[in-house]
From TrEMBL, chain A:
Membrane topology designation: Multi-pass membrane protein
Localisation: Cell membrane
Membrane recorded as keyword: yes
Gene expressing this chain: nrfD
The entry's keywords: Cell membrane, Membrane, Transmembrane, Transmembrane helix
Signal peptide range: none
The protein, known as: Polysulfide reductase NrfD
Main location: membrane
Residue stretches spanning the membrane: 40-62, 82-102, 114-134, 160-182, 221-241, 261-280, 301-323, 343-360, 372-396, 416-437
UniProtKB/TrEMBL annotation, chain B:
Residue stretches spanning the membrane: 55-77, 97-119
Keywords: Membrane, Transmembrane, Transmembrane helix
PANTHER family: LIPOPROTEIN-RELATED, QUINOL:CYTOCHROME C OXIDOREDUCTASE MEMBRANE PROTEIN
Protein name per its UniProtKB record: DUF3341 domain-containing protein
Source organism, top-level taxon: Bacteria
Length: 465, 173
């Protein structure tokens, strides 16, 4: 019939689940009391968040002089962290939009948490944009609003203005996509609700969803169009972030390879972060039947592919620096690999280029502990990539007398800690109060791919009679 | 749905069965009001007899609107209101405007599309629908038949048709 059962595909949902089991398994953690593990995790991330919030408050209060910047290195951890978080934020939209367009059914059980992660990561990135403005209360100056300076407008030729538009569009469209995906599942919780509070809140946000075939048909079209516009959107965002650097004339930044190289790096680090979170979530919420080894393996394959693209980009940059014959460009790259920041460069090379190649072995890419460890290694490497690009290109400029090194202060570190606190606090709140797996989508792909599905159904039918 | 209407509900527990049942029930001259399902079933809306949605057209229109607004704003500010030479470029530096124009187009398309979707399906915060069966959002597929719109077929015949087509329960609401 409408479902084609492929004999070679692995099962996407294991354990012979029925539709009702899916609803029950996913709603369980929303409806039950918070578990002890959750309380600990949430408690620790809140403490981290509060400490970070203090550091960020102090930064806002005193100004960015509290950072370790000097007149040579005028951009360091703030922008490194910003680019790192935005990059991580790319995976959610990629999984839900690009894999939807490619009809990859394995996306269904991971897209919800990946999209949530996207939104939280972009919020973390936004905190660094605001902080590095120095006077965050004037953030609206980045928008083309009529003002008392004769209406002095923003410069639409500037990549920094493009960035404001790209990030804010990306955040709002991702939020919209994620929320519309949640509506049918919120209705499921509403219809199961036993308490007044749950009935009210989930009822309010499920917008009166009925599940009529007409609504579903329109919903499918809407998802498809949103996926269609989100795909170029997600590619545009990191392209524009890379242009913040590439349109300048600093050796090491001024390269045309930046847009595709940044996009590949973003997918790479984003998938690694999704992997880290999924491996924790599946254990904490006992979702092993929904997030299977097959999913982990698929993710690892994407990590290997994008990691290799990033590796080729590193080598290409080096080659072009030599082949161009521009001595400043050549110096910038030789200094990266052999200068005072050699350790950051080789950290980046090891973590991003060598470590994902281990996934060529099936035993390694299906091993959970190794996958978890490598997913963190990849994100450490991707942080160093941005650090290398930003700090090593700046720290030795054209004038040797102004050469300098950068050392972070406690507020550089504290503001970075803030973003982790924010990210994990939001993620744990999401994991407790919203369904972490898209139930409607999982149900829609189960029949073709779930193990023992027809047998299980016959049994349940008999018991009902 | 108003509570004064009489509905006969056929409850199914399999998506393929309900899709078959739709054409089977229709072939007996019974008009189906709608089918409610926990997840989208491809082809079900067409089988019930709903017209193809015009949402893509709306999305395109919003996209065109976004593109126009973005270009109008940028050209007004950069060419007419306060022209400045930046990097030796023309005032009308169209290639530089592509990023913001693109983002504007996407933003208008997404919000216009979702707003249109919500309005056309009567979805809004605080809407409390009179649900026909609470198991629709869990694991049951419910075919709703409006008795008042099926004067020619008796209620018993409708119930029989639903049972014959594979319904595991037939309820009246």
């Amino acid at each position: 019939m409408s479902h084609v059962v492929s004999p070679i595909r692995e099962k996407l949902v294991t354990g012979g689940k029925s539709y009702s089991d899916v609803t029950h398994d996913i709603c369980k953690q929303v409806e039950g009391e918070p578990t002890k593990e959750w309380k600990w995790a949430f408690g620790i991330s809140s403490i981290v968040f509060i400490y970070g919030a203090y550091c960020l408050f102090y930064t806002w209060w005193q100004g960015i002089g509290v950072w370790g910047l000097n007149k040579t290195v005028g951009w360091a951890w703030d922008i490194t962290n910003f680019v790192w978080w935005v990059g991580i934020g790319h995976a959610g939209t990629l999984i839900s939009a690009v894999l939807l367009l490619f009809r990859q059914k394995w996306r269904t059980s991971i897209n919800r948490s990946a999209e949530a992660m996207t939104i939280f990561a972009v919020l973390c990135a936004a905190s660094f944009i605001l902080a590095h403005m120095g006077r965050p209360w004037l953030a609206h100056w980045a928008l083309p609003l009529p003002n008392a300076f004769g209406s002095l407008w923003v410069n639409f030729n500037s990549p920094l203005v493009w960035d404001v538009f790209a990030i804010s569009t990306y955040l709002s469209v991702s939020l919209l996509f994620w929320y519309m995906g949640l509506v049918p599942d919120l209705a499921s919780i509403r219809d199961r609700a036993t308490t007044k509070g749950r009935k009210f809140w989930y009822g309010l946000f499920s917008l009166g969803w009925t599940g009529s075939s007409k609504t579903w048909a329109r919903y499918e079209y809407m998802s498809l169009i949103l996926a269609g516009i989100s795909t170029p959107l997600v590619l545009s965002v990191h392209t524009i972030v890379s242009m913040d650097f590439a349109t300048s004339v600093i050796p090491g930044w001024h390269t045309t390879i930046f847009p595709p190289y940044f996009v590949a790096g973003a997918i790479f680090s984003g998938f690694a972060m999704v992997q880290t979170l999924l491996l924790i979530t599946r254990v904490v919420f006992k979702l092993e039947d929904y997030i299977t080894i097959e999913h982990i393996e698929m993710m690892n394959i994407v990590i290997t592919v994008t990691g290799s693209v990033v590796g080729i980009a590193y080598l290409t940059e080096f080659f072009i620096a030599w082949y161009s014959g521009v001595e400043y460009e050549s110096y910038a790259f030789i200094n990266r690999a052999t200068g005072p920041y050699w350790w950051a460069y080789w950290m980046m090379m090891t973590c991003n280029v060598i470590s994902p190649q281990l996934f060529w072995s099936k035993a390694i890419r299906t091993n959970l502990m190794v996958s978890f460890f490598l997913s963190i290694v990849v994100n450490v490497g991707m942080w160093f990539e941005r650090f290398v690009i930003i700090v090593t290109s700046l720290h030795r400029d054209y004038l040797p007398s102004s050469w300098a090194m950068f050392s972070p202060t406690m507020y550089d570190i504290g503001d970075y800690i803030f973003s982790f606190g924010l990210f994990f606090t939001l993620f744990f709140l999401f994991a407790k109060y919203l369904p972490v797996v898209n139930m409607a989508e999982v149900k829609s792909v189960m029949k073709g791919v779930s193990s023992n599905f027809p047998e299980k159904k016959k049994v349940s039918k008999k018991t009902e009679e | 749905m108003s509570s004064t209407t009489n509905y006969i509900l056929g409850v199914y527990d399999d998506e393929d069965e309900v899709l078959h049942a739709v054409s089977e029930v229709k072939s007996k001259g019974i008009k189906i009001e709608d089918v409610f399902t926990p997840f989208p079933i491809h082809g079900l809306d067409r089988a019930v007899g709903h017209e193809r949605t015009r949402l893509p057209i709306a999305a395109f229109m919003f996209g065109v609107l976004g593109l126009t607004c973005a270009l109008a704003l940028i050209s007004y500010t950069m060419v007419f209101d306060w022209p400045m030479i930046i990097g030796g470029k023309d005032f009308f530096a169209l290639p530089n405007w592509i990023p913001v124009t693109f983002e504007g187009t996407v933003l208008f398309t997404a919000f216009g599309l979702v707003t249109t979707f919500c309005i056309s399906n009567n979805l809004y915060p605080g809407n409390q629908p009179d649900l026909l069966d609470l198991r629709i959002t869990d694991d049951k597929f419910v075919m709703a038949i409006n008795v008042d719109k099926n004067k020619k077929v008796s209620a018993d015949d409708i119930k029989k048709a639903l049972k014959d087509s594979g319904a595991i329960e037939v309820n009246v609401k």
